[in-house]
Task: structure prediction
Amino acid sequence: MSANSFAVVVPMFNEETGALRCVEEITRVLRSFSERTQLIVVDDASRDRTGNILRDAKERFDRLTIITHVCNFGYGSALQTGASAAFDQGYEYVVFMDSDLTNDPNFIRRLVDRLKSGYDVVKASRYIAGGGVRNVPKVRYWISRIGNLVARWLFRLPIRDCTNGFRAIRTGVLDCMNLQEHGFPMIMEELYWAKFLGAKLCEVPYVLTSRAETLRPSSFQYRPDVLYRYLKYPVLAFLGIPPSTLNNKAERL
Result:
């Protein structure tokens, strides 16, 4: 792995309205780093013009890698594809972000700086001093707030915002996780693995904004089956039940 190098992984699905702005904003920030950096966008079989926009952008941005899924495999699968590419290309860290820029690219430096100080997983947090939300519906806020209180109590980890997808992870640790989730619950499965791998975790404060009205609505839904898949990982952690393939993976750390 190249020392202090990192890749930003962004999944996209039908994001033609915001795809170019996302690439422009993130690559602008990456240019400010002296480290080797790359933006890896995974187009999860978009059915609109997202793919065409990304291919045109590739001619303008030398720090952009595009990976296209032939089928829509889901948010979690897109992140795993991007993370595998970052590992194969020798990046030491991977930063996960959403394509709608509700995650401010200027905060990438704060995440990476904490990784450099020895942490394996750094989460952006809405629920610590200095963090918060802006223009997020109250119902969504309270579901998230209560859910994270329960998850933190069950996980017994120094993380107050378990469900935030804006995070950075050492690729060597991520490669030891045998992640199975294809959707959003992969975020919780990741913490489940991190706990049993003995990863060093921390948070940095972050203010989450709402998705712009010009973009398509978020595909995340608070359905009972989704909530179950989120909560089963902190429950397993609380019960002390490790991932079934933990021993084989942990030997590689």
About this structure: Residues 138-155 form the longest helix (18 residues). Residues 157 and 195 are 7 Å apart (CA to CA).
